[in-house]
Inverse folding.
């Protein structure tokens, strides 16, 4: 039976030979911003869906996996995170998770495209519910320029919640970018970056490790987690820092006063488990 | 840009509102057996693909995730597994993993459709490389009937490597079936069954837990793992037994003499981590 593509949104990727589709109720919005094309759909089973330049970005149903894993492992690995910078992350879901941590004093989100945030406020209000938190700062400008102008040793955690390493997102995967991150982070500082599919993008992960090391980060660790709307449904985020990244404040996780849908201490430890094929692919630094 | 479905195989599921596609090189085979329609494709990036009644079953590239997780956690949880029954599993990939365990004396695979195995031998020879092992028994008959005729307390591990709980596979998710399993297993015996997507099929998992408990299994535990070609890319297998299933022979895993592509002790522990939403959904028995 042929696939009737009508009423489905499909992200088909020739390079990986895979496609993922969600059945639609209707298209809610479409616009071309100075930076990219943004579409918003209402889906049959995944709630709202934001698509940027044809790539699925965030759905109501499964974004909790990604946003929790981009925020909590890094913040519970740092001994006392107070100042957090999010580069990208315009949908504000990562910001919301970061602000759940009571000891965070300032969370600064720098996304180049204000329209992502304005559309998220309209169509994903639950992701934006902490945007008015007095600790939140929303800036719409170039994240790299922002980072260059950030005082040295002034940040505890940098979260790179970006698109894929093609086009405008590519520079966020460069050694130079990681050098800027390292400069802005203090000694205990931790960088975490979305790092694509462990199955489909081992080359990207390998490059990332090499460039993070070249930029002076002595330790890396990759977190694996499910993300159904992203290619292969299996995604990752990679931590970089100057100390062993397998240790985290487990007791603080056990005693945390906020709710999660996915994350807990066992999930944190489980996400750090390294599949055998990754051990063989990578020369891990710890 | 509309999705040009030509040269892609797509499994589109109205109920879950999701579809997954793989780009094809060519179709290698198609036949209608007395039980089901089997298709074999050569894909651009996932190697060979077997499709049964329109559902993706196994690909060369990612089957290691599923087959290793169906076999090794159960076999390393049992204190000394010698006699293993596989119900379904006609592609022989689970059988191959089971036979990597040197203390297994007999591994019996009972799949109703011999054609699945014959086609696997031709198109997935790597999955069938242990079919000639003297400990392997391949039978082509009804797994439930087989189980009914199995002597009580005669098995250490039962692996239910079946299709979804619709049509002919449905009976394998019934309380009556679990009663037959429990009867055939000895005191330390462990049942493990593929249990669908933790995100998309929570109702199936919940039913499974309730029926396993009603059939007399005092303990259950679900293993989560990635499986890109299955709906949502996130899959699970559920263990049932009479003792705590979080404990396993970790030292034996560390010292195992065979290779895996995914499984190791950290992956085993990580797969047992229970996401927060699952804790809220289920009343877990341990």
């Amino acid at each position: 039976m042929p696939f009737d593509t009508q009423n489905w949104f499909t992200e088909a990727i020739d390079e990986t030979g895979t496609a993922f589709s969600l059945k639609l109720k209707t298209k809610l919005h479409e616009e071309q911003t100075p930076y990219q094309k943004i579409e918003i759909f209402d889906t049959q089973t995944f709630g709202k869906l934001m698509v940027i330049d044809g790539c699925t970005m965030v759905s109501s149903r499964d974004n909790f996996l990604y946003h929790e894993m981009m925020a909590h492992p890094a913040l519970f690995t740092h001994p006392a995170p107070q100042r957090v910078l999010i580069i990208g992350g315009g949908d504000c879901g990562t910001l919301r998770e970061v602000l759940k941590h009571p000891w965070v004093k300032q969370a600064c989100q720098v996304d180049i495209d204000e329209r992502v945030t304005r559309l998220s406020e309209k169509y994903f209000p639950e992701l934006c519910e902490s945007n008015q938190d007095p600790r939140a700062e929303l800036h719409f400008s170039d994240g790299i320029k922002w980072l260059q102008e950030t005082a040295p040793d002034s940040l505890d955690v940098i979260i790179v919640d970006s698109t894929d390493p093609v086009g405008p997102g590519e520079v966020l995967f460069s050694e130079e970018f990681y050098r800027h991150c390292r400069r802005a982070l203090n000694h205990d500082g931790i960088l975490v970056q979305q790092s694509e599919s462990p199955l489909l993008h081992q080359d990207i992960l390998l490059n990332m490790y090499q460039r993070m090391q070249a930029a002076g980060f002595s330790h890396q660790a990759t977190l694996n987690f499910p993300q159904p709307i992203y290619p292969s449904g299996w995604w990752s985020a990679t931590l970089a820092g100057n100390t062993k990244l397998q240790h985290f404040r487990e007791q603080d996780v056990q005693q945390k006063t906020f709710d999660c849908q996915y994350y807990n201490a066992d999930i944190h430890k489980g996400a750090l488990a390294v599949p055998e094929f990754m051990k063989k692919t990578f020369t891990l630094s710890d």
Remarks:
- Chain A has a mean pLDDT of 95.
- Residues 8-59 of chain A form a domain with the Spermidine Synthase; Chain: A, domain 2 fold (CATH 2.30.140.10).
